[in-house]
Design a protein that fits this description.
single chain; alpha/beta; Beta Polymerase, domain 2; Rossmann fold; 3 domains; six-stranded parallel sheet; four-stranded antiparallel sheet; 10 strands
Length: 425
């Protein structure tokens, strides 16, 4: 079996490509079963976030089958995917997974959300029954190393995340957020973090819009804000100086017409709009309007690059921890490779023992001397256990295969004194 890490991310593909390969949460379980069946995978997990879509799989086949499946089941073409995908195997796949989980491969270096997203992806695949021993072992190693990165380095100490960068960017447009109202579209983890950062900056008012009112109310209540349904956004949009959207919708929620109407009611007072959803929640044409500052998740790079500087030193230590993790995985994998051989060797030895034991029991039942029976049992068992290794070593010596003899000395724990003693006898 080969372990694969296959996908695209913010480093290899722009938003316009990434949103065509994104899987909505409600699509993932079905996609896992389709990928396993149609791409010939033994095990599979899908991680889909605003910055990446990655497939972790165990397979005996070639990655081309996974490539073809992704083209068939998403909106991307083979030509576009060819220019932006990556595929890692075995140890390189585990190294990549550890970097992702540890936040070293994130748009925001060291951001903590990705570990939770990866754990969620693992849980979905486990519940769907598409994870077996190989991926289970890999994820256990990955999560353990990610925890070490968090606890043993300072990579996650500063409040740097997509949500933090979003609020920082808003402050560049509106220097005093205490006079502004923010409309937050969605009620997931990212929007919750945005709400917390806005509250810390003293935002005047928050409005939370979500597909289900109950979830919007829970978040709005925490920050003394208002809760509305997505369908109510056109009625309240004119109230918002800041609009930040992050949902799992497969279609845009805000179009040019709705924003134009809001601007008229606002008498063309500027609006800052940040769309951090993939696929996008806000139509790109909205950016053509005067008095609208529309940004996407890719526009956060400049803000985030500044914040990365404080985490670079910590990242170096994190890389060392990851290399230790890869070495642990390498040793674990090598040990597993010997399991079948060990089991077969033990089974063969037990068969020889059982056969000799039957003979010894028959002799005892016939009245033979117990001491002689035990001696014969020990002698016969010893001869049968060492017969094949002895014949193989003699043949190796005759053919000049000294490396096999050296391995045998290590395998049977034979010291130099043991060998010299046997030569003198």
């Amino acid at each position: 079996m080969t372990l694969l890490a296959f996908g695209i991310n913010h480093n290899t593909a722009p938003l316009a490509i990434r949103e065509r390969v994104a899987f909505a949460p409600e699509q993932v379980a079905e996609a896992l079963h389709l990928a396993r069946r149609q791409a010939g995978l033994a095990e599979v997990t899908i991680l889909s976030t605003c910055n990446r879509t990655e497939i972790y799989a165990s397979s005996q086949g070639e990655p081309q089958a996974l490539f073809d499946w992704l083209v068939e089941h998403t909106a991307i073409s083979a030509a576009d995917l060819e220019h932006c995908f990556y595929c890692y195997r075995d140890e390189e796949a585990v190294r990549h997974m550890m970097k992702v989980a540890g936040g070293l491969d994130s748009l925001v270096l060291g951001e903590p959300q990705i570990l939770g997203q990866m754990k969620s992806a693992f849980a979905v695949a486990r519940d769907a029954g598409t994870i077996g021993g190989e991926l289970l072992g890999a994820f256990q190693q990955v999560f353990g190393i990610a925890k070490r990165v968090r606890t043993e380095t300072a990579i996650g100490e500063n409040p740097v995340s997509v949500a933090y960068a979003a609020v920082t960017l808003a402050q560049q447009i509106f220097s005093n957020l205490k006079q502004d109202t923010a409309l937050l579209i969605g009620a997931g983890e990212t929007i919750e973090l945005v709400a917390r950062h806005l509250a810390e900056q003293g935002i005047k008012k928050m409005i939370v819009a979500n597909r289900t009112l109950d979830r919007a109310q829970r978040l709005a209540r925490e920050f003394l804000g208002d809760a509305i349904l997505l369908s109510d956004i056109p009625e309240h949009l004119h109230r918002a100086d800041i609009v930040i959207s992050s949902t799992a919708s497969q279609l845009p929620l805000l179009g040019k017409g709705a924003v134009e109407s809001a601007l008229k009611k606002r008498k063309h007072k500027p609006m800052f709009m940040l769309d951090i959803a993939v696929p996008r929640d806000i139509e790109a044409q909205v950016g053509e309007l005067d008095d609208v500052y529309l940004y996407t998740v890719d526009d956060l790079h400049a803000v985030i690059d500044e914040n990365k500087k404080s985490r670079v030193a910590a990242a170096d230590k994190a890389e060392d921890i990851i290399e230790e993790g890869v070495e642990q995985y390498r040793r674990h994998t090598r040990a597993l490779n010997a399991v079948a051989t060990i089991k077969a060797y033990r089974s063969k030895a037990e068969s020889l023992r059982d056969a000799e034991l039957v003979k010894a029991q028959r002799l005892l039942e016939s009245g033979a001397d117990a001491s002689q029976v035990l001696q014969q049992f020990a002698r016969n068992l010893t001869n049968k256990l060492i017969h094949t290794p002895t014949a193989t070593l003699k043949d190796a010596s005759a053919n000049g295969r000294t490396e096999l003899i050296q391995v045998a000395q290590e395998l049977f724990d034979l010291s130099t004194d043991d060998i010299e003693k046997s030569e003198s006898e």
